[in-house]
Amino acid sequence: MGPLTYSKGATPRELVLEACRRNNTSLLSEVLTSLSTPEKIADLLNNAKDGVGNHCLHIAASYDEVLDTLLDQENLEVDPLDRLERDTPLHKAVRFINTLPAAQWDSAHSIAELLIDAGADPRIRNKAKLKPMDLVDPKNTELRNVLQKAEYSMTAGDDVVVRDEEVDGPTGSASDSE
User: Are the C-beta atoms of residues 34 and 12 closer than 8 Å to each other?
Assistant: First the structure.
């Protein structure tokens, strides 16, 4: 992908990060539309980081609208780790929800649910060895339940996801055959 720039001189990476910071779905859509293939979009989104190592999903983890647009893109990595805390976007979403007044928690749970529905793994531990559930405000029992259910689902299902293009033959696991 060549270094595309817009009239204001900003690169697509800078524009994506700015769209995430401002929850600007129009700007995000404009940038994504300007790229010619889903592969170029995925490359941009998976590699766009700010100066402290936050990926676009880390930044968007405070806003459900721009987050929803990002999660609709093919081949988006939903569990990138930030450079400082080794947090996933789900860790960031929980941290954000914790900053809100308790009266706003219910509406903010959708952010964590969007990430989980897109495949975010609630079992991943950050640099401090904490899972997103470990960061939840103790009074926020509903968010704790959402994360516990997601963790249980992934553990019970052993998180086995096989895409058609990944199947090259038997993997040697007896559980793969029925």
Answer: yes
**3-class state of residue 81 by DSSP:** coil
Alpha carbon 101 to chain centroid, angstroms: 23
Q: What's the pLDDT tens digit per position in 84-97? A: 999 999 999 999 99
132's tokens: 């997103």
Q: Is the pTM of this model over 0.85?
A: no
Exposed e or buried b per residue across 144-157, where buried means at least 16 C-beta atoms within 10 angstroms of its C-beta: bebbeebbeebeee
- How many Å from the N-terminal Cα to the C-terminal Cα in the chain? 43
Q: H-helix or E-strand containing 74?
A: none
Length of the chain: 178
Dihedral sign (CA 90, 95, 96, 102): positive
Handedness of CA 161, 165, 170, 172 (dihedral sign): negative
